[in-house]
Amino acid sequence: MPDLLSPVIDVLAAAPLLTVFLVIGLGTAVGHVPFGPIRFGAAGALFVGLALGALDPRLGQDLGFLRSLGLGLFCYTVGLAAGNTFFRDLRRQLPLMSLAVVALLVAGGAGALYSRLTGISPALDAGAYAGALTSPVLDAAIEAAGTQEPAVGYALAYPVGVAVAILVVALIIQRDWPAARDPRPASADGITATSVHLLRRVRLDEMEAFQRARIRISYLERDGDTRVATPGEELLPGDKVVVVGSPAAVEEAVHELGSGLNRCLAKDHSVVDHRRLTVSSTRVAGRTIGELDMPGRFRGVITRVKRGDLDLLARDDLVLELGDRVLAVVPSDELERAADYFGDSERSIAQIDAFSVGAGMALGVLLGLVALPLPGGLSLRLGVAAGPLVVGMVLGRLGRTGPFLWGLPHAANATIRQLGLLFFLAAIGLASGPDFAAAALSLTGLAVGGLAALIVVVNAAVLLAGARLAGVSAVRAAGGFAGLVGQPAILAFALSKRDDERVEAGYATLFALAIVVKIVMVQVLVAL
Fold this sequence. Notes:
elongated; four-stranded antiparallel β-sheet; five-stranded antiparallel β-sheet; alpha+beta
């Protein structure tokens, strides 16, 4: 090491916090540099960590706690965000789950054959399998091998696995292949509103689009009087209403009801008014829109919900979260009372419920510590990644338990998730740097790099080809592939390219399942 760098390295080694934040800062800058058609985004922290960690092994020491904290926070917040969608679409996820198991088994077999042909030991092969799939199952491989050899394979394969997986996601995330089993969610097309002049009599509760929650009806003008339509309303010829829904659903409803109106009913605020209200009250968050009984409570209706960048139609079964912005249509004299009911305070949602976060994370870590016996003397621990993910998914589905609200405001969830991801990538990059540098340019290192690329490509080929044949969308398949690989940076990259709820749902579906399969596979590979 050049003498000029020695004082700098000594300072960094003595101040781990400085080192971590330096890696995060430089890594973020590197992540924004385009390499051909892609940018590595948060994964830049991993590569900068590897480069800096290679200078001195002291830089990666004593970062195990930070790595676990970052990974746990990331997985827990992903689980909270994806839990409701995952359980709602569970039947739709089954083909992807089956394909993931097949892909992991086939990739393990292909890797074992490659290792035999290139002289890579079974222990090194098992470590490379865990590293290429960036999985927290390295401890299982080390325990089965009885040596630290799997750790070397892991360090060599890890960056290769990340890079190849990001390239795969970049190639497929923007594709739209036929997906009969996995239609595009209505939120992806946005929400629109149209005023309609009725030409026929119809009861709302008998209208298919209304029954299936594809549209909402808000304003109703009849004989010169304006009010909010009620769910069981009978609409009459000559009535004028506002129809809200996806563009396709609204167009279909216009044709069914009558014809479009050349003026907008919602522009008149004298009798009925509407406003975006921020959900900041804990008595509202965690409850479905149907449970709020807007018609009975305020003689009004919620037509849409803004969550992050998504505009969602206000279905009765939609669970509201802190930070959601609901569009409430109510009589003008009820608007302020409705605002008080929802909270409508930006300051309130800037604070998180520390009890809920702490209790949820504690439950997740505790679940990860439980050892479950498997056939053949093997054991399974979900660890600090899958444990918080599973608990987060369950709590995300529950929304609330009595007075306890489990969800996080969307902005807070995204911030905690990003910080957790950066801490995790910086720590693992610094810790893996010396082993990676020592073997990266050797013949063994090159062979293990090829093995890592093979494992990722085989998994991608089996999973993605199978997903297309099974009618699963490219978006969900890309999220599922990120979950199968298990690397948070790949999910972050996919979401930066496509803001679609199916990405997170696919990730959450396969993450925990893939860990179970990989724990078994690394122990089998060591025994070969």
